[in-house]
Design a protein that fits this description.
single chain, alpha/beta, Rossmann fold, 7-stranded mixed sheet, two-stranded antiparallel sheet, 8 helices
C-alpha cells in the first residue's frame, strides 16, 4: 500500500468531508455558533485554497472531486461534486447564494438532534464505492480516497453512546481498498470550550473514552505525511511516528483546526493552503 498516486488530471483523487451537525454544534463560543466557525471560517478557507489549486489561467485542472456530508440524526449530502469543474461551479454559485451551506433555521446545515456518526461513516463508504466504480468505468487509476470527520463530541443515538456501531462503520470504511491503498480516515474532535489536554497523532491509545474511540476509528497516517506532520509548528510537542493515528482530540484553536484539515487533505499531493494558510487565508475574526 503505497499512497504514492498523487492527484492530477490523469488520476484525480476523491475526498469526503463529514461535518457533525448535531444540536451541540449550535452552542456559542465567544458569541459565535460552533457550526458557523467550522463551516463559514474553516471549511470556506479550505475550499478557497483548493479552488486556487485547480485554477490554471483559463483552464480548470481536474485534480479531485469532493463530497461533503452533514450528519445529526439524519445524514445530508451537502455537496456532491464529481469533478473539479463541478467543484469550481459550486464555489461560484455559493457567492450568489451568500453562503457555502445554509446553517440557519430550516437550512440544510442547521444543527439539531443527535450524533449518528456511524450512519455518516456508512454514507461515506457508499459515496467512495460509487466513486471507485466511476473511476474504473473511465479507465482511470484510483488514488486512495480520503475521509475527514469533524465532530464536537461522541456518537450518540437515542439514550446512549453508540461507540460500537460507529467504530464498526469506521472500520468498514477504512477497509475499502484501491491499488494505491486503503481509504484513509482522519478524525477531528473540535471543542474550544474544553479543558482537557489536546491529543495529536497519538501512537498509543489515549485513556479518555472519547479520544480512545477516535484513535480506534482513525487510520494510521501514511509515510508521506509523517515528515510533513513533524514540520507543523503546532504539533512540535507530539511524538509523531509511522504508527501514529490520523486524529486530534480536544482541539481548541480554529487556526490549528484548519491546519489539521489542510494536512489531511494534502494526502494526494495538493497544497490545500497548507504551506501558508494563515498568511493567504486569514480566518475571519469575531465581530
Amino acid at each position: 500500500m503505497s499512497y504514492n498516486l498523487h492527484w492530477n488530471p490523469k488520476h484525480p483523487g476523491h475526498i469526503v468531508y463529514l461535518i457533525d451537525l448535531s444540536g451541540s454544534m449550535a452552542r456559542e463560543i465567544n458569541g459565535r455558533r460552533m457550526v458557523d466557525i467550522v463551516i463559514n471560517d474553516v471549511i470556506k478557507a479550505l475550499f478557497r485554497a483548493l479552488r486556487n489549486e485547480i485554477l490554471n489561467e483559463d483552464d480548470i485542472l481536474d485534480m479531485f472531486s469532493i463530497t461533503v456530508i452533514g450528519y445529526h440524526s439524519d445524514v445530508i449530502k451537502l455537496m456532491d461534486t464529481y469533478s473539479a469543474v463541478q467543484f469550481n461551479r459550486f464555489m461560484k454559485d455559493s457567492l450568489k447564494r451568500g453562503h457555502l451551506f445554509n446553517t440557519g433555521i430550516g437550512g440544510d446545515a442547521e444543527p439539531k438532534w443527535q450524533t449518528y456518526m456511524g450512519d455518516a461513516f456508512e454514507a461515506a463508504s457508499t459515496d467512495i464505492k460509487n466513486w471507485i466504480d466511476t473511476q474504473g468505468k473511465k479507465g482511470l487509476a484510483t488514488p486512495a480516497p480520503v475521509v475527514i470527520n469533524i465532530t464536537d463530541g461522541d456518537p450518540y443515538e437515542g439514550n446512549s453512546f453508540a461507540y460500537e456501531k460507529a467504530l464498526a462503520a469506521a472500520n468498514r470504511l477504512k477497509n475499502i481498498r484501491t491499488p494505491d491503498g486503503n481509504t484513509l480516515l482522519f478524525n477531528i474532535h473540535f471543542s474550544p470550550d474544553s479543558n482537557a489536554t489536546r491529543v495529536v497523532l497519538p501512537s498509543t491509545p489515549p485513556q479518555a473514552r472519547s479520544a480512545r474511540f477516535l484513535y480506534e476509528a482513525s487510520s494510521i497516517i501514511p509515510p508521506s505525511l509523517v515528515e510533513s506532520a513533524k514540520m507543523v509548528s503546532d504539533w512540535q510537542g507530539s511524538v509523531i511516528t509511522s504508527t501514529s493515528k490520523a486524529m486530534v482530540s480536544n482541539e481548541k484553536n480554529t487556526d490549528s483546526l484548519l491546519r489539521f484539515i489542510q494536512w489531511g487533505t494534502s494526502t494526494g499531493g495538493v497544497n490545500a493552503g497548507m504551506e501558508n494558510a494563515q498568511r493567504q487565508y486569514e480566518l475571519p475574526k469575531p465581530e
